[in-house]
């Protein structure tokens, strides 16, 4: 009974963390060999030309050898769920996507746990709790968890670090110099949160929470750039699109 209560509480907690967005855990089970966790994830993805061959194969079920279809460049798939199969001890995690392709339900092997690079941020859309709800603000902003680095660029010599997202109810607590201006090399910022909403008044980008010289605050992401290419903000949707669409 105690185990059942703990499981139900964990499911409720996961639902709250991802309420209203992709990512909520819809089932979890265990057996002697592996653990299975299933997340809801609704997204349309266009297949690129450079994905791995095994990622193109559509299977009738997870860990099935039978192939019922094959994806090619520019095919559109509807992703419904993400299935995580973790071996006992957590050594390997295979990730499968439950999809709809041309009115056929199947699975594609998104990540092979035996060959995946464990420290690659851009593989698992929900790695280390990405997109968990962190905080809600009384003026409508919602903070979600991310873990990445952005570089400061743009037309202005400095960007404002504010005590909360937005410009209406916030105040400037520091100025961060632009990269390669006034004697500065590339200025990189560690980002641990991003707003779910975008800033309509400043051009439609999000706000990100960063650390700068001992201070924590929020920076408008407009003048920021991804340090090594790829999407600017690693939302779960951007991660999946980046890995399957390149």
Summarize the structure in words.
This protein is mainly β. Helix content is 12%, strand content 42%. The chain is built from three helices and 15 strands. The protein has helices spanning 2-17, 53-56, 236-245; strands spanning 25-30, 34-46, 57-59, 67-70, 76-87, 93-101, 104-111, 133-136, 142-152, 158-162, 172-177, 188-195, 207-212, 215-220, 224-226. Strands 1-2-5-6-7-3-4 form a seven-stranded antiparallel sheet. Strands 8, 9, 12, 13, 14 and 15 form a six-stranded antiparallel sheet that branches. A hairpin with a 5-residue loop joins strand 5 and strand 6 (93-101). It is elongated, with a radius of gyration of 20 Å. It starts with a helix and ends with a helix.
| DSSP strand tally | 15
Report strand %: 35-45%
Query: Mind describing the biggest β-sheet?
Result: 7 strands, antiparallel
Structural class: mainly beta
**Biggest β-sheet: strands ordered side by side in the sheet:** 1-2-5-6-7-3-4
Low-confidence parts lasting 5 or more residues at pLDDT below 50?
2-13
The helix/strand series, from N terminus to C terminus, equals HEEHEEEEEEEEEEEEEH
Shape: elongated
Helix count, DSSP H or I runs of 4 or more residues: 3
Residues in helix, %: 10-25%
Radius of gyration: 20 Å
Question: Please, what is the average pLDDT?
Answer: 88
Distance between the termini: 47 Å
